[in-house]
Every structure is written in C-alpha cells, then in structure tokens.
C-alpha cells in the first residue's frame, strides 16, 4: 500500500514538472514572437538611407539570403535583379519591389527585409553645447534628446534662440526652439522629431 502511494506521488510530481516546463517554454515562445513583432513594427515607418545595413532573407534559399548595404547613391545590389533603389523607402516598400523583380526568376518567392544597422540616421548639434558634433542616433530622436546627447547647453547659450535647420528637396527650412519654455512645460510642440541630417544650432 505504501509502495503504491509512493508511485502515485512520483507520477503526480512528474505531471506538475511537465506542466511547469510546458508553461515556461510557451511563455518564452510568446516573448520571442512579441519581440520579433515589435522589431518588425519599428521598421515599418523608417525610411532607408545611405549606409543602412539590411538583412534580406529569401525563404528556402540560403544562397540569396544576405546582408546588403545601402550605397551613397541610395541603391542596393542584389543577385539576379542588379541595382534596386532603396533610399527613401520603407522596408515594406523595398520588399514589395524586390518580390516583383525576383518572381520572374523564382516563382512564389517569399522575401523578408529588416534593418539590422540603421547607420544613416544622423543628426548634428552645433554651437554652445558641451559636446557639439555628429550623432548617430539609430532611432527617432527629438530636439531635447539631441541636446542631451550633446551634453546640454553651456552657461552662455541663448536657450530661447535655438534653431533646427532642415533641407527638404534642396530647400532649407528653419524651425525655432525655445528651450527655456519647453523646460517649463510650455509650447511642447516645439520639441519635434528630428529627421535624418537635421542640424540643431545653439547660439
């Protein structure tokens, strides 16, 4: 009788351990799926630029799966299709174009495109800041964050005369930024998201 009770105990213990391990693996898998989905979503609105490094994967074809660099002319090179424009596109737009080009050679081709090194997203902070220069931010950055990267303003900076200079289609645009007001919680809409190549000027 005692021996039978021990067997039942061992079986019950084994079932509990099995359930625990299954739950743990399920949670880990869910976390991995969530992380992958977040990474994919973060790429959706990002516009590619020169020096970005992409991972282009072709399902069931390891020979075509590779890392590619966006060249200074905004193009990438890929087997079978040659040069493809990438600059200014999202990864989804590039994926669709690559699919249309490759399907002529590989029926039912399945392609994924991901940014693995966003090296083109650079902003510049110049003037009366502690560490002026070029900053490779790699993610969307607002004016306050850029000033923080530059070590903050120096004591004699004109904090309410800061300007953001941007070039759009060859034309220069200027946006005012009153640091003192934003620091007090006023006119927070001035704290815009910087675009690739923006220059924050602190007089």
Element order: H for helix, E for strand: HEEEEHEEEHEEHE
- Count of structural domains: 2
CATH class placement of the largest domain = Alpha Beta
CATH homologous superfamily identity of the largest domain? Outer membrane lipoprotein wza domain like
How would you describe this protein?
The protein has 203 residues and is an alpha+beta fold. It folds into 2 domains: 53-117, wza like domain (wza like fold, 2-Layer Sandwich), CATH 3.30.1950; 122-202, Outer membrane lipoprotein wza fold like. Helices cover 33% and strands 26% of the residues. The chain has helices at 2-44, 91-102, 143-149, 179-183; strands at residues 53-58, 66-69, 75-78, 82-85, 111-117, 122-127, 133-136, 162-168, 171-177, 199-202. The strands form 3 sheets. Strands 7-6-10-8-9 form a 5-stranded mixed beta sheet, with helices on one face. The protein has a 3-stranded antiparallel beta sheet with strand order 2-1-5, with helices on one face. Mean pLDDT is 83; it is low at 15-43.
Please name the defining characteristics of this protein.
elongated, alpha+beta, Outer membrane lipoprotein wza fold like, 10 strands, 203 residues, single chain, wza like fold
Would you summarize the structure shown here?
This protein is of the alpha+beta class and 203 residues long. It has helices at 2-44, 91-102, 143-149, 179-183, and strands at residues 53-58, 66-69, 75-78, 82-85, 111-117, 122-127, 133-136, 162-168, 171-177, 199-202. It has 2 domains: 53-117, wza like fold (2-Layer Sandwich), CATH 3.30.1950.10; 122-202, Outer membrane lipoprotein wza fold like, CATH 3.10.560.
């Amino acid at each position: 009788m005692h021996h039978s009770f021990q067997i039942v105990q061992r079986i019950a213990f084994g079932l509990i351990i099995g359930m625990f391990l299954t739950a743990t693996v399920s949670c880990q898998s869910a976390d991995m799926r969530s992380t992958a989905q977040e990474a994919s979503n973060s790429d959706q609105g990002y516009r590619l630029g020169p020096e970005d490094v992409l991972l282009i994967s072709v399902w069931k074809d390891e020979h075509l799966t590779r890392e590619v660099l966006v060249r200074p002319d905004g193009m990438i090179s890929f087997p079978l299709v040659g040069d493809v424009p990438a600059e200014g596109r999202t990864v989804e737009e590039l994926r669709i174009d690559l699919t249309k080009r490759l399907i002529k050679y590989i029926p039912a081709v399945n392609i994924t495109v991901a940014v693995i090194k966003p090296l083109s997203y650079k902003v510049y902070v110049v003037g009366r800041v502690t560490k002026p220069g070029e900053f490779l931010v790699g993610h969307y950055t607002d004016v306050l964050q850029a000033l923080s990267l530059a070590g903050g303003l120096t004591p004699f900076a004109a904090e309410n005369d800061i300007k953001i200079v941007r070039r759009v289609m060859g034309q220069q645009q200027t946006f005012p930024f009153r640091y003192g007001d934003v620091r007090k919680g006023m006119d927070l809409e001035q704290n815009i998201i910087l675009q690739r190549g923006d220059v924050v000027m602190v007089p």
